[in-house]
Amino acid sequence: MVVLNFLLAGVIFISCECNAEELNPVSQNNNPAKSDTVQVKSYGNYSSTQLPESGKPGNQSAVGEEVLSSNEPSEDNFKSAKIVGEVGTYTVKKHENIRLVAAKLGVTREQLIKMNGLSPKSSLKPGQELSYNNRKIIPKTVNYGIIINIPDKTIYYFKNGKIQRVLPVALGVPVKNKKYDWETPTGRFKIVAKIKNPKWTVPPSIQDEMEEKGETVITEVPPGPKNPLGHYAMRTSLPGILIHSTTSPGSVYSFASHGCIRVYPTEMESFFKEVAVRTPGEIIYRPVKLAVTENGRIFLEVHKDVYRMAKNLNIEAKRLIEKENLADRVDWNKVNSVIKKKDGVAEDITL
């Protein structure tokens, strides 16, 4: 499991139900730049192909890569405007471990271990190559704004109806008792402020938790290397919810916070510069996703119902398939396998 705790002045606590003081507020007159060119920027080799204006697959992807023609489908190497990510290879950098690599790529540690014949205690070496699959179905497309799908722990950022960023994130831990509810809420929001070098004002609920655990109660944390908000934070209109950097990058792509949305530090810095105040957003909960690619391949993605908000993942998957009149075009053995695994990877279920 990823590390959930931060160590500060001898006190261990989990971030965050967040409050941030604006020490260096960014101008609120930012306007999103308009562009017809798709530049898919994201951490961990996520990528997406945007269809040409004609609505038909082109010969080049948004990042200049060749797209397979519709009569040459490939399980591991294809492009679609409806799916991001890839089956690829990552080269380990100095000081990286399984947890950090998984966080960067937006995959689980279990996947890296299984795909590469590792053990949970394996040490990684610089230059070592790791196979991964971080392919995901875009859960919802908007003209402009941020979509965060809780089950797949991912931010999708759009401009002019085109995907610009796909970022793995950490979200709120599942409810452990009735007193403390750290689940990230669903709902629409706007970015109401951007804060550089924020001070963290510890919410009363987290102070109560510290006291209950017999820890020294901390009321605020100044900007600096020990601040769990990192160097960049964006306040949303949802009470207590920030999108922010983190001092625990290994916690990204997990359920580890007190409700806020943590982004890998290097990605948050650039994302912070791109997103304007008043940018709209929505946090959704879709553990089951279905997509039909431009060449007719059918993909299914199923996640664990970590917040227990879905009635039945099996029924939901079959409902989506039948809704699109695809029941006679899918391999039901593959469908059942994807549902059983719940590994959060988009898989081809085409018959």
Could you explain the architecture of this structure?
This protein is an alpha+beta fold. Among the domains are: 136 residues, L,D-transpeptidase catalytic domain-like (Beta Barrel), CATH 2.40.440.10; 61 residues, no CATH class. The chain contains 6 helices and 23 strands. The protein is globular and about 60 Å long. The N terminus is likely disordered.
Task: Give me the secondary-structure topology.
Elements: E1 6-8, E2 11-13, E3 20-21, E4 24-25, E5 41-42, E6 83-84, E7 87-91, H1 98-105, H2 109-115, E8 129-133, E9 136-137, E10 145-149, E11 154-159, E12 162-172, E13 187-196, E14 199-201, H3 204-212, E15 220-221, E16 232-236, E17 242-244, E18 255-257, E19 261-263, H4 265-274, E20 280-284, E21 288-292, E22 298-302, H5 313-323, H6 332-341, E23 347-348
Helix pairs in contact: 1-2
Entry summary:
The chain has helices spanning 98-105, 109-115, 204-212, 265-274, 313-323, 332-341; strands spanning 6-8, 11-13, 20-21, 24-25, 41-42, 83-84, 87-91, 129-133, 136-137, 145-149, 154-159, 162-172, 187-196, 199-201, 220-221, 232-236, 242-244, 255-257, 261-263, 280-284, 288-292, 298-302, 347-348. The chain is an alpha+beta fold. The longest helix has 11 residues, at 313-323.
What are the main properties of this structure?
8-stranded mixed barrel; 6 helices; globular; single chain; disordered N terminus; 3-stranded antiparallel β-sheet; L,D-transpeptidase catalytic domain-like; alpha+beta; 351 residues
